[in-house]
Amino acid sequence: MNIKTKKKIPAGYILLCLAVVLCLAVYIFPVAFAAITSLKSTDEFYASIWALPKEFLVSNYAKAFSVGKIGTYMMNSVIISAASLVSIQVLALLAAYALSRLKIPHVEIFLMALLLMQVLPTESMIIPLYIIVSKLHLLNIPYISTILGYVGWSLPGTIIILKNFFDTVPSDLLEAARIDGSGELNTMGRIILPLMKGPMVTCLIMNFTYVWGELMWAQVTTLLTDKGVTITVGLLNFQGQYGTNWPLLTAAIVMILVPLIVIFVVLQKYFVAGLTAGGVKG
Amino acid sequence: MKKKALSILLCSIMAFGCLAGCGDSAQKKETEKNTAETEAETAAKEETEAAKTKAGGPELTLMITNSTDPWAETVKEMVEKKFPDYSLTFKNWDEPTVEQTVKTAFAADQAMDVVMYWPTYMKKFEGTGIPMDLTEYMEADTEWKEGFTDGILEVGKTKEGLLAIPNTTNYPMLQVNKKLFEDAGVEFKDVMTWDEFMAACEKIKASGKTPVAVQQEWAGWFVRNALLQCWDNKEELDSFIAGEVPFTDERVKNAMDNIADMYNSDYVYPGGKEAVTTSADDAMAAFINGDAAIFCNVVANAQSVSEKVGDRFELGVISWPSMAKTDDMNNLLGSAGGYMIMSNTKYPDEAVEILKYLTGTEVLQAMADQGSIVANKNVTSDDANYQLYSRDADKVYPDEVINLSSEIFDNLVYNEPANYLFNGESALDELEALREAAAAK
Amino acid sequence: MKNRKKQSGVNRKVVIAGLFFMLPAFVVILITILIPLIWNIYLSFCDWKGGGSISFVGMQNYIQSFTTAATRDAILHSVFIGIISTLVSVVLGVLLALALYRIQGRLGGVARVIFYSPSMMPMTVLGLLFTFIFAASDKGLLNALLGAMGLGTLQHAWLSDKGTVLWVIAMIQGWRASGTIMMLSYTAMLNIPHSLFESAELEGCNFRKKACHIILPLIKPTVRLALSMTLVWAFKTYDLVWTMTKGGPANMSMTAPIMMIKTGFSYNQYGYAAAIGMISTVLIGICILSGRFILRGESYEY
């Protein structure tokens, strides 16, 4: 995007850059705090909460690593995230496309229902859903019940977002394809989806953030088994009766954050790609 | 070119989506079957592995240790070694979620067989039918029963039976920074009355330091201890605990005023009423850094704090200050660590066997060696600290007014003294209304 | 005539295809959300202790919710936090997105990740961090800063004053959600075809004018949607309040979700907890409808 003027850089732009850099300092604070704390000893943490560590202590990472079978946990999390994300994306795309473009009557009511059904806190959904998965005998099968919850709980939000972006695609494009007798799936895949890369990546990142970091449901579904334990359940257990081992916990959190950031950075380029594709007109 | 590749990719995703869409339930069943097969395979593989030690024995899930407990690994290993025929799954005990997970599991009729939970807090399970009544097992095994410290078994008893078995005793105590005491010219005394305590606080405050650091979750101990100490004799205390004395009683009000005084005189870190919101980490940091002279703690955590203090300053241990008019009324709230068994367990006898082992001399000796104050007569320790921390054990009173109802429990444990500090006597009216509601039941 | 018939035939086929497209998502939502929701509705008219039998008690739980001051307060606190944090996150998120849209290149790329990072952090860590920042007296980082700048009079017991504690929580919640809003609005901005800017550029409009007259009106549907979604998410925040204040002191920051979880899991009154949830759902519905009414307007195709 060539928004900036070609020759002279305006003063407003420079000011804006400065403001953004200033904001960055505030925003990076929590991550920096977690990273710095993770390199301290417990003693140092209590001696001065804000200070930099005297020497960088990698042993917290080693310890967080050794607490559990980190490799297995990581693998479980990857499997669960991948399966959940693909299912969410596919199911949400289909439903959002239908709501936006397939002339479903009373769409507004569907949308309101999708929004409102999310109001109840997860905690009050957990008991009934856990009863369901236990009655369906899904608990003994690794991953399935964990994934089912994630997919279901992420779908409403994702559908609403994607529907919103489908709405911006010109409908004459679709009508033309329909008159040509092209099937709906085909139309969607060939004409619409290439315009939707940006929104799809956005949803992917948002859902990945949720699925990768979720704790309560992952813990409940693996209550009685060692199989399918995710990295959050495996790592975020440094909260004891008499306090929390913050250096260890933050080390674990940094380890959980790294894949998120990597994925985000990798997917960055699709934002720009979405832009050029968005210029397609008729 | 690029576009074409992308559309192919998208089409294949769509094809997958179509499959997923065409028959969601059918597909699910299929996955189920597939996973079930792989499941069977892995299970078979595991079985051959397990066959060396466990020949298809009972499968039990234990939630008995937290990764921050110093004895966690030792106890786990001991249990595994003791019961080689059982197939045991150990789950980490996690303070913020344990109650939710246990109750959720029970609602779906899934059982974690042995769960670590405070016998003193079994009120939280009243009416749920979750904890198994262990009375019969206890009565049938005198050797097990007699090993426990006198009276300690009472803490796990409710009108629904013996619901939890204690393994450790725990009660509040104060750890002090002797250097700050000296600087302020306060004489170090093992036991203080409330007035002596307040006088000491005044001197420390005058020396420029904060007298007391207490984390928000534990501020309620001032109230709960006061409510055990402020009565004239045991009969009065017992009738208060039984719900026969109103919370608007003059002595309750006095006790609350004493505590409010302590906050309003800026004795509690970091000063003012706001001190009721001090987080655990802030309170700990204040004490370790020498900003606060007295740290409110529990005996089970004393060792770990003293390790964190290291050689920064000399530590002293004093008893919780007493509002009692006579020595025999210097009671303390007792909390105990311990275990319960979920009543829907498939293997009650095996679970009890494990429980017996966990609360028996062998495991408790190992825990005592790691610094825990355990609830067993036969365990001894030559550790000087062990004697020091456990000296007030006999002051622990087996019952408290918090056991009247879960609402009173919640109010006194989590909401006082904050409510009294901010809202004055209406806090006592609230409690009184809860007491009447409990009495009406 | 014939043509119209064909048209309506196409339409019916399209609607049927649409229903098929929605079916898989519907099945999953049915299992994971709708059945649990119906269960909660049913439970809200019952008494259940989490084990044993469920007994029907009619409207009693609802009556209890409306007559108990603590419950009423908790729900109101949640509505307050919901509205304030939504406003904060939407304003902040859209501004950040505009800034990112203006600043492309390397700085923009780095900023995108970092502006989104609060949304990635677990709530408990944010809670811990902000407890240290907002700690009372001059031990807290914020109070210390104010003191150092000579603004000692502004120092405050942020987390134990009825006037500030809810604001602080709402601000943090809003700040965290701003990352998500930023992503959504930024994506919406990128979807605006460049051709729409051409005439504005010919006229030599500056970025502020373009933002006000082209970008913001075009992304309004996205903003409206983000508004509703953050409202729902903010309303059910639980971890942040729990790590920071546990709903205290003296119930000052008690919110509906904490109240629900307490009445359910601690007092074993699952029916009552469900009733609080139902009341919250209705209230949030009203808030969303009014939010949409304020931001009403048509959507655009590019």
UniProtKB/TrEMBL annotation, chain A:
GO terms for cellular component: plasma membrane. The chain crosses the membrane at residues 12-36, 73-97, 109-131, 143-162, 191-213, 246-267. Pfam families: BPD_transp_1. Gene3D superfamilies: MetI-like. It is a multi-pass membrane protein. Residues 74-267 form the ABC transmembrane type-1 domain. One of its GO terms (biological process) is transmembrane transport. Keywords: Cell membrane, Membrane, Transmembrane, Transmembrane helix, Transport. The keyword Membrane applies. InterPro entries: MetI-like, MetI-like_sf. The keyword Methyltransferase does not apply. It comes from the Bacteria. It is found in: Cell membrane. Its main location: membrane. Belongs to the binding-protein-dependent transport system permease family. PANTHER family: ABC TRANSPORTER PERMEASE PROTEIN MG189-RELATED-RELATED, SN-GLYCEROL-3-PHOSPHATE TRANSPORT SYSTEM PERMEASE PROTEIN UGPE. This is Carbohydrate ABC transporter membrane protein 2 (CUT1 family).
UniProtKB/TrEMBL annotation, chain B:
PANTHER family: ARABINOSE-BINDING PROTEIN-RELATED (PTHR43649), OSMOPROTECTIVE COMPOUNDS-BINDING PROTEIN GGTB (PTHR43649:SF29). SUPFAM superfamilies: Periplasmic binding protein-like II. The keyword Transport applies. It comes from Murimonas intestini. This is ABC-type glycerol-3-phosphate transport system substrate-binding protein. The keyword Signal applies. Residues 1-20 form the signal peptide. PROSITE patterns: PROKAR_LIPOPROTEIN. Belongs to the bacterial solute-binding protein 1 family.
TrEMBL record, chain C:
Pfam families: BPD_transp_1. It is found in: Cell membrane. InterPro entries: ABC_transporter_permease, MetI-like, MetI-like_sf. It is a multi-pass membrane protein. Keywords: Cell membrane, Membrane, Transmembrane, Transmembrane helix, Transport. It comes from the Bacteria. This is Raffinose/stachyose/melibiose transport system permease protein. Residues 75-291 form the ABC transmembrane type-1 domain. Belongs to the binding-protein-dependent transport system permease family. GO terms for biological process: transmembrane transport. PROSITE patterns: ABC_TM1. Its main location: membrane. The chain crosses the membrane at residues 14-39, 75-101, 113-135, 141-159, 166-189, 270-295. GO terms for cellular component: plasma membrane.
